[in-house]
Amino acid sequence: DFTVGYQHSFNANSNHYLHLSNISDSVTYNGYFESNNLRRNDDGIFRINRKYQIKKIVFSTGLLFIYHMQNDDITNVLGERVKAVGSQGMTLNFDLAGSIPICKKVDLTFILAKPLVQRKDLPDGLARTFVGIVGLKRNF
Q: Residues 96, 63: contact at Cβ < 8 Å?
């Protein structure tokens, strides 16, 4: 499977995080990305997956490329709009997804994903080391 997509951000958020130098453990505290009045830009998406089937179990594995098209904007401590330099760029994820029938009309589903490459600066808070989702799907 090949998928191409576009993700538009409508920028409805109320983030207010800024680095403050008067915090006692400022290295840890300031290690998080600033996001005050974040204005997030759009993404282009490309996915390539391969499906497999073993008896009634269906699963797929593949790569998801997400390209963040421009640097995001934030408001700095002086109230100025500035670019979050390093927020533009590519994230590459490896994923594994599947569906296992557990009775006639219900499947157990799962998605596991791991980033292989991440952008340098992530003021949108989308940094992950691992993502796992488990669900039930009812077939009609």
A: no
CB 118 within 8 A of CB 127: yes
In this prediction the pTM is 0.78
The DSSP annotation for 69-86 comes to -S-EEEE-TTS-EEEETT
pLDDT truncated to tens, each residue of the chain (140 aa)?
Answer: 999 999 998 886 778 878 766 665 666 666 678 888 888 899 999 999 999 999 999 999 999 999 999 999 988 888 899 998 889 999 999 999 999 999 989 999 999 999 999 988 888 878 889 999 999 999 88
Show Cβ contacts of residue 105 under 8 Å, excluding neighbours closer than 6 positions: 138, 139, 140
Rounded distance between C-alpha atoms, residue 21 and residue 50, angstroms: 49
